[in-house]
Amino acid sequence: MKKIISLLLVIVAVATVLVACNAPATEKEYTLAIGVAVTPNTAAAKVSETVAAIVTDADGKIVLCRFDCIEYAALDRSGAFNATAPTSKAAQGDAYDSYQPMPAGRWYAQVDALASHIKGMTQAEVAAIALDGGVVTNAELKAQCSINVTDLLKAVDKAFSSQYTTSFKTTAEALTAGIAATASVKDTATDDVQNATFAVDFAASVLVEGAVVASILDSAEAELKDVTADGAAEISFPGTKREQGTNYDSYKPMAAGTWYVQADAYAKAAIGKTAADIDTLASEGVAGCTIYAGGYKQVVAAAVKAAK
């Protein structure tokens, strides 16, 4: 009798294991958001834009975080108008500040350390990170990230607070994500004053098994007005296009919808594409998006290729 009972227990155990192995994986929902912290320096006619992309789970905790930053000065070292569009810090890689090596590592390595540190945190927990002069006080993190993180954390907070996010579902446990920022500069000087418009497109993408499952765009235009010979300027920045929401270009409504609606339609066109085929993404003619998207194609492609 004992042998029969033992045999039955073994059969039940094996059956339980088989059922567990054949059970469908649980599909989870995530949210992808993007936030931009803009820091003007009117005394030096400069503007810095720091972007954070976060993927959060159903509990509002960070699953992935990626950072980038791009800076522009309206005048070059000779005092002439600077028409050269800058390259973002992440895109520069080891070349960024190569003349001034940092003890804690390259810029991208330090922000990756910060991103790893805040993984699993909520918005309130990120906001509670202790700083001293903009530098983290946590000794273990400071050894890996000794740069000023004020704007980085501000960008994360903005991403958490964004009204315009995108959601996706997947059964996969392993997600990768990439971020990119690409800029253009336009000289808008008149006969009386020297002005410049610094425009940046931001994109973040999430990949599962090498293919895009979610993508998001934002764009920012900062105007540097009345740039003087000594480098001072007024800086006008109404917020990113995503932050402005329905207020952006409200005076000339677009038939296909406001900017962020069209940007979301364009970003969805990247879903299913891999880094190898992302360059086939169309520049125009994408359903739901009538705005010209050549710049958006460039930055989405860069974000997908940067996924890690």
Summary keywords:
alpha+beta; 308 residues; four-stranded antiparallel sheet; 27% helix
What features would you describe in this structure?
The chain has about 300 residues and is an alpha+beta fold. The chain has one domain. A four-stranded antiparallel beta sheet has the order 3-2-1-6. The longest helix is centred in the N-terminal third of the chain and has 21 residues. The model has no long low-confidence stretch (mean pLDDT about 90).
Spatial order of the strands forming the largest sheet? 3-2-1-6
Distance between the termini: 58 Å
Radius of gyration: 23 Å
Number of domains as seen in the coordinates: 1
Amount of beta strand: 25-35%
Along the chain, the helix and strand elements come as HEEEHHHEEHHEEEEEHHH
Low-confidence stretches: none
* Total helical elements: 9
Assign the structural class, choosing from mainly alpha, mainly beta, alpha/beta, alpha+beta, or little secondary structure. alpha+beta
Q: What helical percentage do the residues reach? A: 25-40%
Largest sheet: 4 strands, antiparallel
Number of strands: 10
State the shape: globular
Give the mean pLDDT: 90
What is the structure about, briefly put?
By secondary structure, this protein is α+β, with helices and mostly antiparallel strands. It has one domain (28-305).
